Each structure stands twice: as structure tokens, then as C-alpha cells.
TMM70 protein (Rhipidura dahli), 182 residues
Amino acid sequence: QVTSFQGVAVRSLSTSSPHDHPEHGRLVYKGNLAKAVLGVKFFSYSTSIFNLFMMPYIMLKSGIGLESLLVQAAFYGLIGVFTFVTPVTLHILTKGYVIRLYYKDDMDTYTAITYNAILAEKATVFHQKDVKIPDITKMFTTFYAKTKSMLVNPTLFPNPQDYNHLMGYDKSSFFKFEELEE
């Protein structure tokens, strides 16, 4: 592989694919909503921080601190909902969204990359045998890795066999040919 860097030929002797990660393995899935999830969570957090800094100023300028206790409770409740409940709800809904999923063939392990509460990437390593499919379809869960719910879009797997192996569909068959012959 030869690439040009400011007119100078540079040769790369790397044998790995650009989709390989030395620690996690081969990239088998990449979520298409990763930037949107990060953007929405960042916007929600930034508006909450803005609200926290502006609340004392608004209270002083509006005189809401001098009104009745009922008006104060309503004001604090409304601000509290937008300041605290919205980011927490967004985090709960999106914490299992898989940004990238890697697979190590030799160890049969997966590494799911998700966002944690402080918007940093978090790696969850699990074996295929740790994957549990929920009995009832859940809105934000495709499968459980150990006890953590994960959300992936099956159509975004470039190789359908990778999804089938992740979910264990390649190991179990509904009909065995020996049983059909009997």
C-alpha cells in the first residue's frame, strides 16, 4: 500500500484492515446514529449547565424569591424537570446504543463501544455465550450482554453472518435433518 504525503511516497507495511482494532478485534458493526446520540446528549447537558448558572440570576432579577411558596415551588419544579430529568432520561434511553462492535475470532469475544454518562466511550467485553435475546421485544434492547441491554440495528451489519453469530442463530437450528428423516 503506497500513499502520498506532501509529494513523498510513504509505504505502509501494515497487514491489518483499517476496520481492525489491535485490542478489540475486527469491526463488525458501526451504528449510524452515534454522532446524533452524542450531539443530543451534549446539547442536553450544556443546556442543563446553562440553566444551573442562570437560575440565581433569573431569581434575583425577576423577584420570584419574594412571591408565595406555591409560585416558588412551581418555578423550581419546572426548571428542575428541564435541568435534571431530561438529561437523565436521555442517558437511560441511549446508554445501550452500540456505537461500534468488534469481534475477536480467536477468543470468540465481542467488545461493544457505548457512551457513558459523561459522554466518554465505554467498552463492554462479553462472550457470545453471554448474549441473551429478550423473550418480549423491547423498545431500546436488541439483546442483553450479560445483564446490560444493548441496541443494534441488524441491517447495519455489513456481513449478516456476523449478526447471526452474535445472536446465536448460527448455533441453533429449528429443524434438524435427522429428526426430519425419522
